[in-house]
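All the exercises in this workshop are built on plain-text protein records. Sequence and backbone structure share a record, each on its own labelled line. The structure tokens are whole numbers drawn from a learned vocabulary of backbone shapes. The record below serves as our worked example for the rest of this section.
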Amino acid sequence: MLDRLLNKHGLRANEVADLLPVTRQQRTMLLESMTLTEPDMYVAQFVATFAGSFDRVALMQAWSRLLARHETLRSGFVWRHDDDPLCVVFEASEPTWQHLNWREQDVSNWLVQDWLAGFDGVKPPLRFATLRLSDERWLFVWTYHHALLDSQSVAHLLTEAMSPHALAALPARDPIRWLARQNSN
């Protein structure tokens, strides 16, 4: 049965670190995302503007470290034969990066198009972009699906990106219980 599921989604067993049940909330978000005719309300964007010198390579390296450390960022979703989703944790994942020269152009249209693109398939639902707005201004855009990350997880990851040794890794397994423990601390 596992081989059939992997074949159905074009996956090889050596790519997959784990298959996990999704939470009720994740299931609801994924099902609603599939049935929406309007833009997906569960696609989120984190946008930050950098002024002055900007090291795009260092930013990409920081996010590569986060992907290696956090299985949640290497997780996507597959559907079983009974129409129940599973979280697939990949051994490794390379996110999509775009690097655009956007001087003298309206960024708002690009942001809307990026948001409308949504996510498709089994790959982890996240992508990154840097847009050069001028010689001294850059925009960093991190687009992700809310079924993968909630606002607390996003804040945790951003804090870690700025201070990589400060926080514990986010689990893909039972994130709700992990978040509850963090809130009680």
